[in-house]
Design goal:
The protein is mainly α. It contains six helices and two strands, in the order ααββαααα. The protein has one domain. Strand 1 and strand 2 form a beta hairpin.
Length: 153
């Protein structure tokens, strides 16, 4: 199968790998892993937050999907590095918002006299932020390389 040369270049860049990992973490893995166990031992998943009466918790699954979609859009913006960086920065802000909502929820879980177990899903926004920061660092490195080559012309 023939791909255009610029598409092949996009696939060879390290920031593409970082962005795809961030998209998979926020768009797929977050819906599979449990976020926490309640006192009864039931695993609460991300989609269980949609039935919550608090509107702040109802928006969390949608923010995870938005983060995954935004990461995929950033992959497709490989020709415009400035837009790609801005898209990643917006995605980092969304993930900090997610992290804040999740930590607030964990601190206000009912029945915390008995210790409930936190799942691995709580750390997904933090991992996504790390991968987006690594992608931004690699994009900035590419941008500086292009600027330095343009100065030599």
């Amino acid at each position: 199968m023939y791909f255009c040369p610029s598409f092949r270049k996009m696939l060879q860049r390290i920031q593409t790998i970082y962005l795809v990992i961030a998209a998979l973490l926020s768009g797929v893995v977050s819906f599979v892993l449990p976020f926490w166990n309640d006192i009864n031992g039931e695993q609460l998943m991300l989609m269980d937050l949609r039935q919550d009466e608090n509107p702040y918790y109802m928006v969390v699954p949608f923010l995870f999907m938005l983060s995954g979609i935004l990461s995929l859009i950033a992959v497709l913006l490989y020709k415009n590095r400035v837009r790609q960086i801005n898209s990643n920065r917006l995605n980092i802000v969304i993930n900090f918002l997610l992290l804040g909502i999740i930590v607030y929820r964990l601190l206000n879980l009912p029945g915390e006299i008995d210790i409930s177990e936190k799942g691995i899903g709580v750390f997904i926004p933090l991992l996504v932020i790390v991968f987006l920061a690594l992608a931004n660092k690699a994009i900035l490195k590419d941008e500086n390389l292009v600027k330095s080559v343009d100065r030599l012309r």
